[in-house]
């Protein structure tokens, strides 16, 4: 599984340049035609997260992999993706047409907590199979976006925001597509790789003010949009260890590194690793290493 794809990565891979206004703090939006970026000679979409939201309207047979789900679409589909869940799609037909738009959270902040809509919630299947009429209706919204993004109208971004919100509400009135069974071993491998990548991302700790964001098995399961029992079964089948064991082992590894290679005090290290009280960190460390954090640090200082 690849790491997160940023907006900069997207533009470098698709257009070979990064727009100058990408980081102006006002939010970003753009819209594209699918046929310019899909087809038999285009690079496949990698299975990874994106650091931006994306809405895709596509005509053509496709297979979508989303979290631990697979959905096969025979003709027309509308797909919503967000920074929380990794995905990729495999075109089955050589000919693919439609539109897709990308935007950041800041772009829609004026519309409140749009992230709370059901299509962006963990466990949802935000993919919709469309009839010919539904496709035509949705296509008209994208055509308006495509027309406005190239116009000189001073308030075009406000108009585009309303079109995006209308697109979201249009989708929420539809019935999500059903997921299809996938090979159990393949799904378990994918979930294990996703968990490992997500776990590793918790430890980009460069300051005592930073802290693990995901600490418990439930945190990881929610972030991966799967049930905690399912996550535990997958990890157990591949690694032979529970979710809690894998998290604890990685925390212990990071604790050793921080004790050995930083001058942060014990409380700061415990805080970074998700322990609310220093005593909880000391107990955890001593149980697994048979030394207190202080004794471990002193031992390594004299090596």
UniProtKB/TrEMBL annotation:
Highest taxon listed in the record's lineage: Bacteria
Pfam families: HTH_18
HTH araC/xylS-type domain boundaries: 189-299
The entry's keywords: DNA-binding, Transcription, Transcription regulation
Membrane-crossing residue ranges in chain numbering: none
Gene3D superfamilies in the record: Homeodomain-like
PROSITE patterns in UniProt: HTH_ARAC_FAMILY_2
Protein name: AraC family transcriptional regulator
Organism: Terrimonas ginsenosidimutans
């Amino acid at each position: 599984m690849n790491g997160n794809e940023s907006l900069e990565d997207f533009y470098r891979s698709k257009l070979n340049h990064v727009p100058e206004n990408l980081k102006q703090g006002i939010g970003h939006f753009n819209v594209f035609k699918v046929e310019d970026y899909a087809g038999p000679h285009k690079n496949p979409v990698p299975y990874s997260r994106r650091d931006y939201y994306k809405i895709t309207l596509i005509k053509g047979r496709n297979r979508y992999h989303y979290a631990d789900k697979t959905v096969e679409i025979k003709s027309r589909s509308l797909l919503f993706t967000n920074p929380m869940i990794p995905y990729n799609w495999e075109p089955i037909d050589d000919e693919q047409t439609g539109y897709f738009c990308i935007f950041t959270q800041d772009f829609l902040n004026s519309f409140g907590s749009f992230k709370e809509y059901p299509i962006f919630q963990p466990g949802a299947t935000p993919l919709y199979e469309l009839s010919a009429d539904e496709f035509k209706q949705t296509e008209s919204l994208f055509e308006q976006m495509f027309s406005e993004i190239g116009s000189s109208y001073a308030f075009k971004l406000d108009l585009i925001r309303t079109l995006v919100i209308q697109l979201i509400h249009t989708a929420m009135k539809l019935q999500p597509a059903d997921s299809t069974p996938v090979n159990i071993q393949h799904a378990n491998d994918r979930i294990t790789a996703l968990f490992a990548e997500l776990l590793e991302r918790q430890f980009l700790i460069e300051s005592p003010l930073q802290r693990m964001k995901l600490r418990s098995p439930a945190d990881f399961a929610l972030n991966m949009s799967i049930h905690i029992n399912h996550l535990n079964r997958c990890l157990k089948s591949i690694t032979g260890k529970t979710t809690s064991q894998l998290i604890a082992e990685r925390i212990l590894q990071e604790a050793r590194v921080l004790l050995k290679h930083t001058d942060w005090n014990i409380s700061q290290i415990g805080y970074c690793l998700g322990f609310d009280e220093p005593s909880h960190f000391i107990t955890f460390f001593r149980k697994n290493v048979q030394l207190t954090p202080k004794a471990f640090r002193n031992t390594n200082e004299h090596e």
